[in-house]
Each structure stands twice: as structure tokens, then as C-alpha cells.
Amino acid sequence: MPIASAEAQPIQIPHPVSQITVILDAGAGPSSRLRGSLISQVDGVLKVLLTTAVGSGVQVGVAGEVETPDGILPLRGKYRVRSCRLAGIGKYHAELEPDVEQEQAAPAPSSDGEDVDYYEILQVSRAADTDTIRRVFHVLAQRYHPDNKETGNDEKFRQVVEANTILSEPEKRAAHDVKLAQSDKTRYKIFDSLQSTQGVQAELRKRKGILRLLYAKRLAEPHSPFMKVRDFCEMLGCPMEHLEFALWFLRESKFVIRADNNRFEITRLGVETFEAEEVNYGKKQYLKLPAASGGSESE
Questions:
Q1: For residues 50 and 94, is the Cβ–Cβ distance under 8 A?
Q2: Which end of the chain is more exposed for a tag (fewer CB within 10 A), N or C?
């Protein structure tokens, strides 16, 4: 009777375990993605049970979620196979250690980018509470998980994981909020001098700018879509008295309405008009938002 190899003895797996995906080649198809069970995570080293052997030293990607006493947390990164040994019939026990060199060589997170809005990535309001962010994250993570054959998307999964990581930590979220506030003041500014706020082209920029701000506010905070005139002044870089004509035109066109306390809100017609102009951007030049000019403009 043959003597069984010690390495072939089954490994006792603690319960519950978390299902993860080990990606052999991010650029290849589903066949390069191995489903595995996470046994443990100690000092960053993952112990994983796989149904396919992987070679020692091979670099792999890991994507999934880990069940912890504090809830389900995302797990994603680059690892190298430290060891992989037989653990039973069709089962392999692998140890994966973080790929330190890869992490150091990796580009800086997209959070350094000027246009990144993690609230927009998760499709939640900037006033959303932690529970709402967590629920939305789980929905999007399942949708974009690399193992989802219908809607899986590696890049979008990375984005929602990063967004959840930032917005789930109070200090990081506060820093992100400050950055967004600063970005808002410069991103929507369309005038760089008092003279550039006058003229026909300037009026077109004002109207488009106001609609853009109200559209973004309605999209991000549907329960509080209002903005005050001073908000337009600060964000567009335009004096209050120079916005009166643009606001009058938008009200008369039924694109915006004025509520109590001189607060403005975009209407359904305003949304349709703004979106139609965005779709036709570049096709009809008169719908474009002209670049701000440093000098006065003739009518």
C-alpha cells in the first residue's frame, strides 16, 4: 500500500473564508483568473486555497473582499507567490506576499489628480453617511468585480475600492472634501478679469456656467439642489451685478427657478437643454463655452 505524501494531506480551513480572485495576467481573459479562498492574512501575507498550482516567484494580482469584525473590507493589490504546495486532490495551498518593488514603482494614486471626485465615482452625495457609502460600494464592487463575466471591469473596480477607502476614513474624507472645495472654485471659474465679464460671448459663458453648476449640484445632492447668487459669483469669478442679466434670461427661458432666500435650482427643461448642448459640443460651435479672454470683447 503506497504511503501518502505529507504534503498531500488536506489543510484545515477555518470558517468563514472569503472568496477572492487571483489574477495571473491582467491583460488576458477570464481563463487567467483563479477563484480562491482566503484562509488567513498575517503581516500582509495571504494564505490562499486554489484549485490550480501557481509557480513560486510569479507576480499575481488579487481582488476581492475580506470579512472582518468591522465589516467587509476591500482587498486588492500586487503579490508574489512565496510558495505553492499540494493540499489534497485538486487543491493547492499558496502563500502570497506583497510585491514591495511593484508597489514602490507603481504610479501615484489617482487621488492626486485634479478631477477625481470619489463621491461621483460612488454616485453618492457629498453629504452621504458612512452606511450609505458602504452599501453603495458593495453594489458597485459586485458589479465591477473582475470575476463578474457580464459587468466586470478591472479599472472601475479599482476606482470604487479606492473611493471607498478614502470616504470610509474620517481624516482622509475630510482632506478630500477640502480638496474638492478648492477645486470647485477654480474648475468652474470662467473669467479672469472684470473686463472679460462683459459682452455677448461673456453672457453666453455666464449662462452655460450657471447651468453647469446647478446641473452638478442637482446630480450630486438631489435633496439639496439649490445654490445662491454668491455661490455663482465665487465659483465663476464674476461680480454679482454682472450676473443679473444671465439669471433673468435663464428664469425667463424656464431653465432655472428662484426659490426662497434668493436660491436657484435647475429645472427639467434646464437639464435637457444643458445635456443637449453637451452632446452637441463641437458640432455646433455657438453652443460651445468660449475661452475666457483677457481683454474686452466687442458685441
A1: yes
A2: N
State which H helix or E strand residue 229 sits in. Answer: helix 229-236
CA distance 181 to 76: 29
List the CATH code of the domain at 110-183. 1.10.287.110
Q: Where do we find the cell 453603495?
A: 136
pLDDT category of residue 290 using cuts at 50, 70 and 90? very low
Strands of the sheet with 263-266, listed across from one edge: 227-228, 263-266, 256-258
Closest CA to 145 of 68, 78, 61: 61
The structural domains of the chain, with segments of one domain joined by +, span 8-105, 110-183, 189-287
Is 14 in a helix, a strand, or coil? coil
Query: Would you state the cell numbers that stand for residue 119, as one nine-digit string?
Result: 463621491
Mention every residue, 6+ apart, whose C-beta is less than 8 A from residue 212: 188, 274
**DSSP, residue by residue, 139-208:** HHHHHH-TT-TTT--HHHHHHHHHHHHHHTSHHHHHHHHHHHHHHHHHHS---SSSGGG-SHHHHHHHHH
> What does the radius of gyration of the chain's CA atoms come to, in whole angstroms?
26
pLDDT at residue 255, rounded to an integer? 94
pLDDT at 252: 93
- Which three three-digit cell numbers place residue 286? 455657438
The class of domain 8-105 in CATH terms is mainly beta
Q: Rounded to whole angstroms, how far apart are CA atoms 88 and 67?
A: 25
- Spatial CB neighbours of 250, under 8 Å, sequence gap ≥ 6: 207, 210, 211, 256, 270
Strands, E assignment, the chain: 18-23, 33-42, 45-50, 59-68, 71-88, 91-98, 227-228, 256-258, 263-266
* pLDDT 10s digits, 184-241: 655 555 455 444 455 677 788 888 888 888 888 888 778 888 888 888 877 777 777 7
Please name the residue that has the C-alpha cell 477625481: 116
